[in-house]
Specification:
It is found in: Mitochondrion inner membrane. There is one protein chain. The protein is mainly alpha-helical. The protein contains 4 helices and no strands. It folds into 2 domains: about 60 residues; about 40 residues, Cytochrome c oxidase, subunit VIa (Cytochrome C Oxidase, Chain G).
C-alpha cells in the first residue's frame, strides 16, 4: 500500500512527462508540408546567420587566440626563467617561527620531514642553514 501512495495517481503523470521529454536543441531535418513560407524563410535566415557566426568565432579562435596564447606563453616563460635565476642568486632564508613546521608525526614519504611539494630551490631547509 505504501508503494501505491508513493507512485499513486498524483505522481504518475509527472513521472511520465519527465520520461517523454526531449531536450534536443536541433531542429527537425524536414519541415511539415503546411508550413508558412515566411516562417520557413526566417528559419533559413537563422541557420545562415548561425553558420556565419560559427565561422567567425572559429576564425577568431584560430587566427586570434592561438597567436595571443603563444605570445603570452613566451612572455611568462621569460619571467619564470628570470625568477629562477633570481632564486639562484638570492636563495630564500629560513625564518624559525614557533607556529611553523609543527610535526606531530612524520610524513609517509621521503625523509618524513618535508612536505610532498617541497622544492629545494624555493623552500629553505632549516637543517642546511644550521
Amino acid at each position: 500500500m505504501a508503494s501505491r501512495s508513493l507512485f499513486g495517481s498524483r505522481l504518475a503523470p509527472a513521472m511520465r512527462s519527465l520520461r517523454t521529454r526531449n531536450y534536443s536543441s536541433v531542429a527537425p531535418p524536414h519541415y511539415p508540408a503546411n508550413i508558412n513560407p515566411h516562417v520557413k524563410a526566417e528559419i533559413e535566415a537563422i541557420k545562415h546567420h548561425a553558420e556565419k557566426t560559427t565561422e567567425l568565432w572559429r576564425r577568431i579562435s584560430i587566427y586570434g587566440m592561438f597567436p595571443i596564447l603563444g605570445i603570452t606563453a613566451y612572455v611568462v616563460y621569460g619571467m619564470a626563467v628570470d625568477h629562477i635565476h633570481h632564486l639562484h642568486e638570492h636563495p630564500p632564508t629560513f625564518k624559525k617561527y614557533d607556529y611553523l613546521r609543527i610535526r606531530n608525526r612524520p610524513f609517509p614519504w621521503g625523509d618524513g620531514d618535508h612536505t610532498l611539494f617541497w622544492n629545494p630551490l624555493v623552500n629553505p631547509d632549516p637543517e642546511a642553514e644550521e
